[in-house]
Structures are given as structure tokens and as C-alpha cells.
């Protein structure tokens, strides 16, 4: 059924995946479902693209090394850098933050800091918030050196962001990372414990911890793009429907806590 070219059927399958994903074994997901589902990332209909991103929250735990760490990251890189819909770029960042714990250690090191940093430069404000929340939700996956030299400089730049919602989340994340650094500075013996997850093969348990902050964006963009789909069933929305962004030159993701009190603008994502 996932190989069907009927858009209505495909989107229904994606929307209802939560009801049957537990009955699918990993070989079936990797060989018969995922290869067809990923075509949705390239669909011209934003609702299909959005639902495809959303489905990765359910599929990621069952994906093999190649599909999760290579194929999916390739699609996420393109969506985050090139998708013309701000909410879809935002939701891609949110999804990456939630599934980050399932990635291999080498992929996490290669992808996460680069991807969340890119999100903080997005012209769509909720995407910038998602980048900050992504850093916060995956804080245990970064070394102290990366926190000090790569993450905090990015977050500090957001303290003068034009949007207060972005500034507020940046300050919260900065305080969290500074607290970790200060704790290790006061007691260097804590370093091993603080960095215990950095080189771990995977930390699937973290998915639940990220669920609360991921939920607002995933749900919000679903309702938004569904509305757009009803208005423009065969074409992407125009500038009057949703914020647009100039298409940048895409670059691979690999080259380079929790959010509360979201503003109304953030909830559009």
C-alpha cells in the first residue's frame, strides 16, 4: 500500500501509522515500507512532506544503520536547507532532536551540532526556536569541549535575536549548558559521568524525554499543512499562505531540554 501513487491513500497511511507500527518487524519496515515512504520527502504537496517527516518519529526506532544514519539524514539535510515551507523546515529540526538518540555516535557527532546551528539561522522564527530546543533536548550527547566552543557561541548570538521567543529559549539553554560546564569546572571528576552518553552507541531512552517539546511543533504543522492541502490540493501554498524563504545552497548535515511557554507564533510550526 505504501507504494501506491494515490496521494489520499498515502497520507491516510502516514496519519494512521501510529495504530499499526507496533505490529511491523524491522525487516519489513526497512525493506518494504521505508523505501516507499521516503518518496514523500520529495512530494510537491507540503502536507505529504510534513506527514512523512512526522512518520519518522515512529519509524526511526526500527530503521537499520544505513536507512537511519545515511538515507534519512540525507533527506533531512535537504528539507532543512531547501524546503520552501518554514513549518516543514522547523518540523524537520524538531524530529531530528527527538530521534537524535537513535543515531550512531559518529552520526550524532557529525550531524547534530551542524543541523541545529543551521536551524538557528533560519528566517522562520519557530525554526530558530526549534534549533535551540534541539540543542537543549540532546544536551547529554555533546562533549564539554563542544558545549564551550561550538554550542554556546551559537546560542549567545541568539540573545539579540529580533524575536523575544527566540531570545527567551536561548537564555534558558545558555544557563543549562553553563551550569554543566561550571559543575565540571568545580569538580573535574564529574566529567566522565557528564559525558557518559557522548560515545554511547545509542540512547533510545532519551526519546521519551524529548517528546514534550517535540509534540507542539509536530502537531502544529500537521494542522497547518492539512488546512493548506484543503485549499490547494495539487499545488504548494503561495507566499500569502505561509512564510517563504529564499532557497539556499544546500549543504550536507554532516559537514560541519525541554521547551515551555511557547508563544503563539511558535505554535504555527
TrEMBL record:
Classification via SUPFAM superfamilies: ARM repeat (SSF48371)
Presence of keyword Repeat: yes
Protein keywords: Repeat
Keyword Repeat: yes
Region (Disordered): 234-269
Biased composition (Polar residues): 235-244
Pfam families named among the record's database cross-references: HEAT (PF02985)
Protein name: SCY1 like pseudokinase 1
